[in-house]
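Weekly puzzle thread! Below is a chain. First person to post its structure in token form gets bragging rights.
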Amino acid sequence: MTENENFPPDERPSKSHIKREMLALQQLGERLVELPAAQLQQIPLSEQLADAINTARSLSSHEAKRRQLQYIGRLMRNIDPHPIEDALAKLKLKDKQEKVHFHQIENWRDKLIDNGDDEIQLFLENYPDADRQHLRQLVRQTKQNKSGADKALFRYIRVLIEKKA
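Winning reply:
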């Protein structure tokens, strides 16, 4: 008895619909294969699926990888893909938030370097835990292109922003 026999004849999904669903599962499997190992561990996967993904990651032959991805797609037909999709969405959101946070730090650094004392005062109003003298010193060293000063300023701003958050 096949999957389609569970439906009345007029409600059966078309072959095209079934194929689209299988391709979507295979593409989801491809996204899992492309994830870094640390992120992959955060995804709820069965042991068999995790092994198949790790095998696909180790393959270098295009054809072997294609067959392994098809196998991953077949394995995914037997599981509920929604928890995996939800976990991937959370990872994507987390990455987006980290990028926004990074850009916020970069913007403060650039404004402090470009605008000097006025921007330092504004920064101190937003982040009262900042040490004015140390901040001015880091900005001055960055403007003088001293080695590592720009990284030190970036780190200092990052610590203050994370401390406030």
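Puzzle host: Confirmed. Bonus trivia for everyone else. Residues 3-79 form a domain with the Diphtheria Toxin Repressor; domain 2 fold (CATH 1.10.60.30).
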